[in-house]
Amino acid sequence: MSAILEGKNLTKSFGGLTAVREVDFHLEEGEIVGLIGPNGAGKTTLFNLISGVFPSDTGTLRFNGREIRGLRPFEICRLGIARTFQIVRPFLKMNCLENVLVGIAGREERETRKKEDKRDEARELLKFIGLPGEENRLAQNLTLIQRKRLEMARALATRPRVILLDEVLAGLNPSEMRQALELIEVIRSERKITLFWIEHVMGAIMKGSDRVIVLDQGKMIREGKPEEVVSDPRVIEAYLGDANA
Fold first, then answer.
1. Which domains does the chain have, with CATH numbers?
2. What are 39-79's pLDDT values in tens digits?
3. Regarding beta strands 32-36 and 211-216, do their DSSP bridges make them parallel or antiparallel, or are they unpaired?
4. Is 66 exposed, middle or buried (0-12, 13-18, 19+ CB in 10 A)?
5. Of 138, 154, 216, 231, which has fewest CB within 10 angstroms of its CB?
6. In the β-sheet with 66-67, what is the strand arrangement from edge to edge?
7. What pTM was computed for the model?
């Protein structure tokens, strides 16, 4: 395996607050890597740097060997990095099929395929993520887990090589969490997509990740296999405030 996405010495400050401080990370192709840390640790800021919401103050960010620091979000998306959000953001007045077609339309500067071919692709993606037969249903009428699945379909429509997942389990019940975990693994195994995953449900991320990266106050304090990370005193202290807890 080789690194498909890597950042070195990434730092981002907002006024006097340093949200990400000298962070190094890498994702190897085909991995599921968890990103954890207490609230305010810098997790979403790191995702914002990767996806081009704003540039880092220092450091390098390389995707598939190419420097992407400073590119705009749509340029990074077209290169092959997609993203979901903690608060799902479908186009509420559009139906499910139209939402996925937006992802397809944004994939290339010029999309020359026939309209029906694009619609067929969108239908296939809705079926793949668990929304078969829902193509005409308005996004505003979906349940939370259905909206999360729709957002995943829209991300997949861009044909990414890496997807950044931001708390996909938030608000789900245990049964829905199991379904979401199964979908994440299927996306990796069947679509050959690398996943970088922020999550606060510790049991799920420890079960579903190959490696885990821990941020605290903007700095990376641990990286390794889930069972190694969860027992590290520095990680325990970051979450509980007491290394002996």
1. 1-80+163-172+194-245 (3.40.50.300)
2. 899 999 999 999 999 999 999 999 999 999 999 999 999 99
3. parallel
4. exposed
5. 231
6. 17-28, 3-14, 58-63, 66-67
7. 0.92
